[in-house]
Amino acid sequence: MDLIIRRAMLPRSAASQDGQAVDIGIDAGRIVAVEPKLAASAAEEIDAAGSLVTPPFVDPHFHMDATLSYGLPRVNASGTLLEGIALWGELKPDLTQEALVGRALQYCDWAVARGLLAIRSHVDVCDPRLLAVEALLEVKRRVAPYLDLQLVAFPQDGILRSAGAFENLKRAIAMGVDVVGGIPHFERTMADGAQSVRLLCEFAAEQGLRVDMHCDESDDPLSRHIETLAAETQRLGLQGRVTGSHLTSMHSMDNYYVSKLLPLMRESGVAAIANPLINITLQGRSDTYPKRRGMTRVPEMMAAGINVAFGHDCVMDPWYSLGSGDMLEVAHMGLHVAQMTGVDGMHACFDAVTVNAARILGLEGYGVAPGCAANLVLLDARDPVEAIRLRAARLAVVSRGKVVSRAPAARAALSLEGRPAQVDFKLHRG
Ligand code: FE2
Questions:
Q1: Are 245 and 215 in contact (CB under 8 A)?
Q2: How far is the CA of 314 from the centre of ligand 1 (A)?
Q3: Secondary structure class of 65 (helix, strand, coil)
């Protein structure tokens, strides 16, 4: 074998060994064995020593065309969504393909180091030059040996509101962009928003593509485009291929209406993506106090059988000044905002940045089992809850069977009389 990771603990969603440590055998880019005390040898062996090995983090919602542009041409003074969109509009004419590719590749380096090996990125198609589309298609080719990048044709300014946007979106798909995007709540009227959902879903059905729309990213309880998205999914037979991103208006909707909406979403097989870091900072901006959190109804959707994942959305761009590609930071924020502090809830938040997100992207061979792709992360934590609590170091990241990143464990040396020489921030009893 090429590589064996010994004495690994698996997350609940991948654990078939009942909490027992396993050895993971890897050959020719595939996992070939997952069992205790694997009787084999390999060119390279890593001792996990009881730490968690997980399939890679997956970011199901990102904007790689804008990432790392913080401060260009100026910073977002108010920190609001609308100033962010205006700022992006100011930046667009100055974009060059070279700068876009450079920033995106730098972000992908960060992602790999964070064990984030699959990203669905929206790419703005409203610029008729389709410069960002060309740039991200080039990035997709360049990172393909180590990272799965899926692209969504995203009409930032609306397909009905912005002249030529739908045609540009179709051109982007013809160039190789994977998924059909949309932004119904940004169209001029509710009727236009619903019409945009219909047109885009019909186009996706014709082309046999997946759909992922920015949907109802507002605090307006009457923004109900998710209902149209679910209904169109059923009408066109798109079940399992459609995702509503953000869905923040659901936070503010009437409970009776939501009690009808959740079963509709479940029957339609529509998945949901919350973006906790962005939702908690951008929503509720018109409120005084009490101030709404604005994140969609994550635990309620999960309980209704809807697949829910968490996305990063933004890192150092016109909408968000922070972030470093750490999906554990995303899970940490999601856990807090959704108050998912029970044990099952915390594990569900880990799933939201791993297995649930992988299902949305339709990743093949994702998991820790024989036959799966050898994409794995060794974390400096013993279980997913500890991983979220510590935003644990990625001790080793394996992509396509090769170790592509290593990082030291987080330790601090103490100089205190009568106290230990070192702390690792883990609970040690007895
Ligand atoms: Fe977004």
A1: yes
A2: 7
A3: coil
| C-alpha 428 – ligand 1 centre gap (Å) | 40
User: Which pLDDT tens digit goes with each residue over 149-178?
Assistant: 999 999 999 999 999 999 999 999 999 999
217 is catalytic: yes
Alpha carbon of 206 to ligand 1 centroid (Å): 25
* Domain covering 3-55+367-413 assigned CATH 3.20.20.70 in the classification: no
Q: How far is the CA of 62 from the centre of ligand 1 (A)?
A: 6
Single out the catalytic residue among 45, 167, 187, 217. Answer: 217
Homologous superfamily assigned to 57-361: Metal-dependent hydrolases (3.20.20.140)
- Give me the residue spans of the domains in the chain: 3-55+367-413, 57-361
CA distance 417 to 326: 36
The pLDDT tens digits of the residues spanning 106-140 come to 999 999 999 999 999 999 999 899 999 999 999 99
Is the pTM higher than 0.90? The answer reads yes
- Report DSSP state, residue 282: H
Rounded Cα–Cα distance for residues 401 and 397 (Å): 10
Which amino acid is present at 228?
Answer: T
